[in-house]
Write a structure and sequence with these properties.
38% of the residues lie in helices and 23% in strands. The protein is α/β, with parallel strands linked by helices. The strands form three sheets. A six-stranded parallel sheet has the order 2-3-1-4-5-6, sandwiched between helices. Helix 6 packs parallel to helix 7 (146-152). The longest helix is centred in the middle third of the chain and has 17 residues, at 116-132.
């Protein structure tokens, strides 16, 4: 019954899940901005909001989640971007959200040596989430991150798009500048098929955004990878980055 229910939601909504250990969620805000510029109606939701009552995990929280999704359909939302927390990953078998894309952006640099338990827990929860995903879900991961590769090793026969600065990545960057703005050439190194079935050939194009830290290059590559799969053209990706100024605000 649960799968049938969320399959009905999937007929009306596209679901993007973003696991971002930075807790800043720049990726989700960049992606939402680009999708809106491409003509989409977007909603961002942090899944921690569904766990405000710690003892409510079960039928009550699932009912609340279903009501939230119905509200999005009623107001004309096309894409729901969920900022996925550990609580949601641990209980994904209850939510069974039919993600079109899961973007897994977890950095080893964000865990200290004292965070060993949290790091291990994050890896296990990530594996749990990906194990339960619908087979048709597209997974996007940073090929430069040892922690992401550790999770990636568990994936068999799944559609995976990689990003990063490694030559092995599907989407990478070259000629990086970080002052006064982040600038680089985005390089699509292998062909990508969009959700609409359009083929994107290998190419490169210049992008620029207001954030001024080198680590923002990874956020930009991640957001771009998801945007390409969702059918945003390179031209609109360039425009989206050029006027991105901060957290996305739903205009509806």
């Amino acid at each position: 019954m649960m799968n049938k229910t969320y399959n009905l939601f999937n007929e009306k909504l596209n679901f993007i899940g973003i696991v971002d250990s930075s807790k800043q969620y720049n990726i989700s805000h960049m992606l939402a901005h680009m999708l809106e510029k491409n003509g989409g109606a977007i909603e961002i939701k942090n899944t921690l909001d569904f766990f405000h009552e710690k003892d409510a995990i079960g039928s009550k929280i699932i009912e609340e989640y279903g009501m939230y999704l119905q509200q999005q359909i009623d107001k004309g939302t096309e894409v729901v971007i969920l900022q996925v927390t550990l609580e949601f990953m641990e209980n994904y078998h209850l939510f069974m959200t039919p993600f079109d894309i899961v973007l897994y952006a977890v950095s080893d640099n964000q865990f200290s040596e004292e965070d060993y338990v949290e790091r291990k827990n994050t890896i296990e929860m990530g594996k749990t989430l990906l194990r339960y995903l619908p087979q048709e879900s597209i997974i996007i991961m940073n090929t430069d991150e040892p922690l992401d590769r550790e999770v990636l090793n568990d994936l068999k026969n799944r559609f995976v798009i990689t990003y990063g600065l490694s030559s092995r990545a599907t989407v990478t960057a070259s000629s990086i500048e970080t002052s006064p703005h982040v600038r680089f050439y985005s390089c699509i190194q292998r062909g990508i098929t969009t959700k609409q079935g359009t083929e994107i050939e290998p190419m490169e194009f210049p992008v620029q955004s207001n954030p001024a830290e080198r680590n923002d290059v990874y956020s930009m590559l991640a957001a771009e990878s998801a945007a390409l799969i969702l059918g945003v053209t390179p031209e609109n990706i360039v425009k989206g980055f050029s006027d991105f100024t901060g957290p996305y605000k739903n205009s509806k």
